[in-house]
Amino acid sequence: DDIPRAELEAGLTHLPLSPYVGYRTDPDGRADATTLFQLAAQGGFQRLPKGDATFGFRDEQAFWFHSRLFNESNTEQRWLLVLQYPLLDNIDVYLRYPDGRVDHLASGDMLPFTSRAIRFRQPNFWVDLPQRTEVELLVRASSKSSMQAPLALYTFSAFAEMERDAQLGIGLYDGILFALFFYNLVLWISLRDSSHFWYMCHISGFGLVLFCLNGLAFEYLWPNQPKLANLAIPLSMCFSQMAMHQFARVFLELKERWPLGDWISRGFIYCYAIAAVASLWVDYRVAVQPLTYSVFPGVLIVLYQAFHAIRNGYRPARLFLVAWAMLLLGTAMYASVSAGLVSKVFVTEYGIQVGSAMEMILLSFALAYRYANLRTENERVVREANEQLERNVSRRTAELSSALEQLADANARLRESNRRDVLTGVFNRRHFREVFEHLLHQAAETRQPMGVLLIDLDHFKKVNDTFGHLAGDECLRVLSQRLQTEVAADNAVVARFGGEEFVVVLPSATAARVQEIAERLRRRIGSEPVRYGGKEIVITASIGTFSIPLGFSFNPDDALHQADDALYVAKNNGRNRVHAANKS
Ligand SMILES: Nc1nc2c(ncn2[C@@H]2O[C@H](COP(=O)(O)OP(=O)(O)OP(=O)(O)O)[C@@H](O)[C@H]2O)c(=O)[nH]1
């Protein structure tokens, strides 16, 4: 019998019972207290493994714990026995006093909350420990959840003090979660970014799981519905895991950035949806055990997704990864306790709270960072679009003004070609008429003399007949060039008047000057034969001139008529000569 008895010395206010507890498994759960008290007397109980009542998921129907309590000198006689794990289904406490009396107390989350000594999230019992009396404690615990039965004795005041601190911690934690929840609710409503919505789901799912696990959900949400309290654990686990994967999908933009990772997340989400529905029917243990274990690969895959995103240059994933590492640490610690891998100490028991609180806060930062990132990205896109637009506009403007220039140019050329005779390049008759009218008007106004010459090539029909029409064309071209160069110095206007007939207007020229120029032109035409196709074509011209007397005003038709008459005389007088209308 090497398990020591728990001795309550004077001044002691609380005592964890693990070092003083022996345990025994009850595979079919049918053993009764009387038998177990006998077994205890025979040393049939073992010390706790690693000195700690944490066993993980076990197949045995029940566990029995035995301890001898001896109030040696403590003035406090009424103690609170607390079972510091809220998820045990049934707990039976038997106290055997020296006089043979056995008290039986029952609690656990399969009984309504009111069965507890104190309304508190962990099962608890009043235990009378009179001074200098050994009381035997026998506890039967059964659970479909992980088997943990850390027992402790508290005086009422010590319990109140301990609980104050614990409630403060829990309040702080839930306060952080509530604040982040509502903060992101506001962000979601105002920004309409679904990542905030999934973050809220992630927070509330996670918070709900912890609320169930630490017994507060049973205490505050459904104190009289033990069944619902038990069902809430697998359901909230499924919900929190679905929200976690969905949040990761949205935050890390997996659909666009890593479709395979997206598919894996969706796979997890579908599995949890099925598990949630299944947990309504299947046994609690069957549901919770795989769910607890599935948290490991689930969190790891999200961790890997974050790594993947960082490797592909997605900056917001960095903070996400740090946040996730915190959660991973906390979750791993908690799950390890549940699985009985590590003992229950502060860091392992509250690691999940600390880790997840850090995670939630960091994720909130990550969301803000992501938002800022998106905004900068949007601004960049808008700026680039604007720059592109400006470039396009100035290019189009340049194109347009060049087109306008070309058009103006083409218009000018068109206007010019409208004035010119196609064959010879000198002004055509229509333009000549406009200019002539203007010049006549100007001459009358400024009282300047002016001359007009009508030049008709002699026997041009014969040229065509002899040398061909193309040769005739060449003659017309060459002669009109000669006319132009000959009178260029006199500001003269040269135009083709008809087939082989030209007209020349000489502004400011006196009658003598008109005669002189006409004579010069006639000589120039006749003196130089036109060369075409190796042949020399001699051409002469008859010219009729009309000098407008000073101070007289003529209309174009009358003036031309005068010149034409003179030309007619020149022709009749034998051609190749000049005749002035004014002389006749
Ligand atoms: N090759 C060519 N011939 C032209 C053109 N325009 C008119 N002619 C010819 O010029 C000739 C003018 O003939 P007519 O009016 O009889 O006068 P002509 O033969 O010059 O005789 P006179 O004027 O009396 O000396 C015609 O045979 C027309 O075919 C042209 O653009 N090119």
Automatic annotation (TrEMBL):
Its EC number is 2.7.7.65. Pfam families: 7TMR-DISM_7TM, 7TMR-DISMED2, GGDEF. It catalyses: 2 GTP = 3',3'-c-di-GMP + 2 diphosphate. GO terms for molecular function: diguanylate cyclase activity. Gene3D superfamilies: 2.60.40.2380, 3.30.70.270. It comes from the Bacteria. The keyword Nucleotide-binding does not apply. Keywords: Coiled coil, Membrane, Signal, Transmembrane, Transmembrane helix. NCBIfam families: GGDEF (TIGR00254). This is diguanylate cyclase. It comes from Arenimonas oryziterrae DSM 21050 = YC6267.
